[in-house]
Amino acid sequence: MAAADSPSAALRRRDLCSRGIRLAGKMRADVVDLLDAYVEQQGLDASASVAVEGVPLAAVERWDEQTGTQRLLENLAAYRAFRALLAQMLEEQREQLGEADAGLGRALAAVLLQVSAFAYHLEELLRLESRGVPGEEEDGPPPPPRLGLFEQKLRGLGVLRELAQWAVRSVRDLRQLAKPSPATGAAPALAESP
Amino acid sequence: DSHPQYERVGADVTMKCGSMDWDAAVTWTVNGTDIDESHLNGSYLILKNVNLSQSGQYSCYEGSSWHLKYQTYLRVGTPPKEPVLMCRSNNYPKGFYCSWHLPTPTYIPNTFNISVIHGTKDMVCEKDAVPKNRCHIRYLQLFSTVKYKVTLTVTNALGKNFTTLTFDEFAIVKPDPPESVVAKPVPNNPRRLEVSWQNPSSWPDPESFPLKFFLRYRPLILDTWQHVELSDGTSHTITDAYAGKEYIIQVAAKDNDIGTWSDWSVAVHATPWTEEPKHLTTEAQITETTSASTSSFMAPPTTKICDKGAVVGSGAVAVCWTAGLVVAAYSVLFI
Fold it and tell me: Main site of residence (chain A) (predicted)?
């Protein structure tokens, strides 16, 4: 992993991490705003319990023990899933579209763009570590059954909530990644697992 | 033998003298003092509308032989009111603690039972030895959207009560205030003050979970605060201080991304550097300082650039002219 250990690679990684942290921070702020608007315009109860099947959960055990590679791969899988989920929400939004929701549609599209950008950013980080970037599954998960209008709204709530959590987790993950290497000289946590 | 008997404030209590008949001749005592016969109905002791002061050791003796026939320790108290519960994470991401108290005392022993549920999972909140009404819990998961539900039940011999708190992981994050806040004047800079502080020692990993800070400062003579928010670093230079005025300064901390601001730190005082005066006094300064009557005046530690050569006022008193305002305040106290 000579390339991964070179000083320029370390600098590039730190640079990518800092930018990623800023991206994730901005994304989180926008998702939180979107969540507020979504709850209000869809007439939902913000504290409602929502089933989150098919939505990547940010919750993780032993987070501090994860390797850098694990972090990047889990983040990438999550944001790719969110990209698909948000695209679906946008489509559903357009189908239900009323004038009042046009702003919501735009906000959703803006967040979708940021999610795509962040997924790409994560791919860059993985490439830097000479890690293969996992291909997107050709078939993907089967499309979920068509939900009723209310179920769609509740699902949207679940998606945005988890996305907001992920955005916070991603900031933490990138900070871990950006930490300077220990004495071994190998990038911490980015080395192959034993 | 003696066993406690718990009764509510305001209750009517009837004590029987063990197995003695109602018409037996007995003597009742409380804490060794005879109880007047007016409180007796036969051999029964009647206490109406008991109050807290009637708690004590009640004993019943057979009339002639003075054999002890019955003894009980009466404890008058109240059932518990709804307890006050709070949970907070000042050591994120390690875990959180919950602490509780009763709004009013019950005057009898209480037991507290706390349960913590995360989704469907029961978690154990380990009780702290000190302080007593507190327990802590380690996070098993991070970044969960599932809420935590904490239920505290308080039970005593006269009743029980409970309260519940529901919250999510991020909402209860509140660091302890910054520590070791120090404010110093900057030499040759009459409008600057250098402030520095440290992360609270309870925050386990400031590198991975950095804190941001809020500084507030004002001269003692004004009521309105100036605020500065700092996204990194543990120092800041105030550059717009009023020359010669003593300032009060405090700092608060917050996780960069989640939770709420800490309480304000301990306040520190500082006065910006002032130039050594060329003349000792002006009219205004004499008016300000001649009321000072104390000769041993302790200056606050972080501040005074005080030139002992600047002597004002009557012979025995040496006062820094820069501290005129503070001296005026002290002199009001001593006059």
Answer: cytoplasm
B119: contact with A, CB 8 A cutoff: no
Domain boundaries, chain B: 4-77, 84-167, 179-270
The shortest C-alpha distance from B227 to chain A (Å) reads 23
Range(s) of the domain holding residue A42: 12-135+156-178
SS3 B150: strand
Q: How far apart are CA B330 and CA B308, in angstroms?
A: 19
- At B212-231, the pLDDT tens digits run 999 999 999 999 999 999 99
- Supply the pLDDT for residue B317: 42
Chain A to chain B Cβ contacts (< 8 Å)? 45
Neighbours of B276 (CB within 10 A): 10
Determine the Cα–Cα distance for residues B182 and B236; give it in Å rounded to an integer: 11
Q: Which CATH class is domain B4-77?
A: mainly beta
First to last CA, chain A: 15
Is the CB of B94 inside 8 Å of chain A's CB atoms?
A: no
A162/B145 touch (CB, cutoff 8 Å), yes or no? yes
The verdict on pTM exceeding 0.90 is no
* Burial of B325 (C-beta count, 10 Å sphere; 0-12/13-18/19+): middle
B75 close to B3: Cβ distance less than 8 angstroms: no
Q: Place domain B179-270 in its CATH homologous superfamily.
A: Immunoglobulins (2.60.40.10)
CA angle, residues A83, A88, A90, in degrees to nearest 5: 95
* Spatial CA neighbour of B107 closest among B31, B15, B8, B3: B8
Q: Which of B145, B147, B258 to mutate to test the interface with A (most CBs of A within 10 A)?
A: B145
Sign of the C-alpha dihedral computed for residues A107, A110, A116 and A117 taken in this order? negative
State the nearest Cα–Cα gap between B143 and chain A, in angstroms: 5
What is the spatial distance between Cα A90 and Cα A93, in angstroms, rounded to a whole number?
Answer: 5
pLDDT of A163-190, one tens digit each? 999 999 999 999 999 887 654 333 444 4
Q: How far apart are CA A152 and CA A146, in angstroms?
A: 9
What domain count does chain A have? 1
> DSSP letter at B39?
G
User: If you measure CA to CA, which chain B residue comes closest to A63?
Assistant: B142
Which chain B residue has the Cα nearest residue A21?
B257
Coil, strand or helix: which one is B289? helix
Is A108 in contact with A27 (CB distance < 8 Å)?
no
Higher per-residue confidence, B289 vs A48: A48
Geometric angle at alpha carbon A179, from A174 and A182, rounded to 5° = 140
Closest CA to B51 of B104, B12, B9, B4: B9
CATH T-level fold of B84-167: Immunoglobulin-like (2.60.40)
